[in-house]
Structures are given as C-alpha cells and as structure tokens.
Amino acid sequence: MRRLRLAYLVTHPIQYQAPLLRLVAAEPDIDFTAFFGTDFSARAFTAGEFGRTIQWDVPLLEGYKHELLPQLFAAPEGTQPPLDLWRPVNYGLAKRLGEFDALWVHGYARAFHWAAIASAKRRGLKVLLRDEATSISAERGFLKTAAKRAFFAGLRSGVDAFLPIGTLNRQYYLENGVKAARLFDMPYAVDNAHFRKGAETAAVRHAQTRAELQLEPGRPVILFAAKLIERKRPDLLLEAFARIQDEPALRQSYLVFVGDGPMRASLETKAATFAPNAVRFAGFQPQAELPRWYDLCDVFVLPSQQESWGLVVNEVMCAGRAVIASDRVGSAADLVRPGENGAVFRVNETADLARALREVLNDPQRLASMGRRSLEIIERWSFAEDIAGLRRALAATCPGFSAEPSR
Description:
Blueprint: E1 4-10, H1 18-26, E2 30-36, E3 45-47, E4 52-54, E5 65-68, E6 71-72, E7 89-90, H2 93-96, E8 102-106, H3 111-122, E9 126-130, H4 142-158, E10 161-162, H5 167-175, H6 192-202, H7 206-212, E11 221-225, H8 234-244, E12 254-258, H9 264-274, E13 279-283, H10 290-296, E14 299-302, H11 311-318, E15 322-326, H12 332-335, E16 342-345, H13 350-361, H14 364-378, H15 383-397
C-alpha cells in the first residue's frame, strides 16, 4: 500500500516538537516531511527575552526529513528573527505541495500559512491545523471577538480537520463555529519518557543540589522555572511566598527561581527584603539540566497572567511533583486538578496564590501524594495520544488511510 505523503509546515524547529516529529516519521504508512520558515533555533542565537545567547542542547533536526524554505528579509545569522503575522516571509512551498496528499499546519496567525492552506486546497490536499489559541490566551473585546469569528468562517473552508491541544483550545474552536466532528484531539505533550528518566537520574544528585544551594535538609522547595519577564509574574510568586514566611507551619520553605530575564535584578533586591535567606536564583539552565531542578522541588508554581499552554507543567509532572498554576495557564484546565495534584489560583491575586501555597504545603504526606498523582495524570497525556489523534484526523479526511497503523 502506498504511504500517505504528509507535509508539515511550522515557522521554525521547536525543541518540544522534535521528538514528536521523529515519531510521526517512524509511522510505517506515513511519508513525512517538515518544512521550516527559518532554522535559527537549530543553532546558537541571541534571544531577547532570555537576555543572552542560547543553544538548545537537544537535537532539533534529526530523525525526520526536513527542508528549509527560502525566505526574503532573513534576519542576521545568530539572531532570533521576528515571528509574527507577516514574518518569516517565505516562498517555494506551493510548487512542492503537489508531491503530497495532506498538509499539516502549525499556527494559523501567519500570512504565509494562509497562503499555504490556499495552495494546498487548490491542489486537492487535505489540510490539518493545530494551534494554541484559547479564549484566555489573549485579551479580546467585542470587536476582536466578532472579527475572529468572521476570520474562522473563512478558515473553516480551507481546513478539513482541527487538532485541539487541550480542553480550552477545543472549546475555542467550537465557540468559533468549528463542528465537533472536525475536531481530533492531539494534546500538547512532551517527551514523557525523557523527562521521567531525567528526574530519576537527577535523584542521585538531589542531596548535592541542595548542598550547592545551601538548602537545609527537610525544608520544602517551591520552584519557578521560566523566563523572568512580566507575563510570567515571578514577582507575584515572590510576594505570595513572603506572606507565608511568617506562618509557623510554612516559614521553613525555600523558593528557587530557575531562569533569567529583565526582572532578575529587581527580584533579587525584593527577595533580600521580603524573604532573606529563603530565596535562591539559579539563572538560565540548559534543557538537559531541567530535570535536576524538577527533582529538587516539592511543588512547582506557574503564576503567568497569560499562557496558552505551559509545557513546563507537563515536564515537572513527569518528575512526580505537585503543581500550582494561575487560571490563565492553559494546561491547568487539563493537568492541574485542585486537591488531587495541586491547586489553581485566580490570576494576579497574591492572596489567592498564598492560599494555594498553604493548601499544598501544609501536609507533607498529602504533598507527596499529590506528586504521585501528577505522575499518574501525565502518563496518559503523551506522544502516544498525539500519534493516535493525528492518525484519526488523517483517516477521517484521507480516503484509504487507517487510524490503526499496519505493523
């Protein structure tokens, strides 16, 4: 039987996606090729939000066929180019699409992606779309909401199947007129096995890591691991942490910030005043080192005021840790179950975050049980579900393709 020829279009190689793309390429009945608008992320580059030059220490281009599309107005070598509605400006994909049966597009808010969808439909290809947008991922007034629905009316005519990454993303499609029959769940996942193994390996260094940070034995650790930027609200976490320091049952906790960014200096100054000797700053950490920090903590907090998903939640759950997230973190709707494996608090409310910290930290045995529950939940939110969802979408749109792989 002829293999289904699947093209994938995305702006750039993404560290979280690379393992999934390798798995798609390994499907025996799928001939897979990825097309990138730019490949800056596959090399060392200067990232403004990190405030430094970084290079991902995981292979981004190995294990699957890929091509870099020619582009106009390319950014200088070693810099992170703007990724927005108009950029990158690519060409050359339309001619290649005649060699494929289906096009899978990641992200609808790109002019070039719209052109690719139109070209694919003219050539008779089936089009699949995956995106992160939810009703909470951006502020939208009445006019923006109306404009979005009008936009989706046109988008629906060019897309055969939508691939929701989670509950809020699925609801967003439904709110914008996409029929449930055209939705095939493809949850946002990470390489669970990789992060689980990393945490198990890091456990051997647990005592060493605590010693390096001068953390006294037995005191619980609260972890923040993200860019130190306003949208992530590390300042809110610091303020909430300071509030619980005066409470006898909780004042022995530590707060560890992993990450870098423009807010670091001000956070360090506030930490010296709000919670002296109880806050540590570990700076930017390579991807391979992150499991070490997940293993270190007892509870992870993501207080973002806007987060379409937040894959760091997936990662830390693979280490079997409790999670606290704001109600504007997309993954919280699916992965954080209050009272079971963590807590959800009202965005930008310091008092409510302090309440969540108390609830999670006040009982060590319950805290450990929450960590175990996180691991149970994330084991069923994996690349296996992604492959199954992708295959269902292809089977529903491409005649002759089966949702069940032929091994």
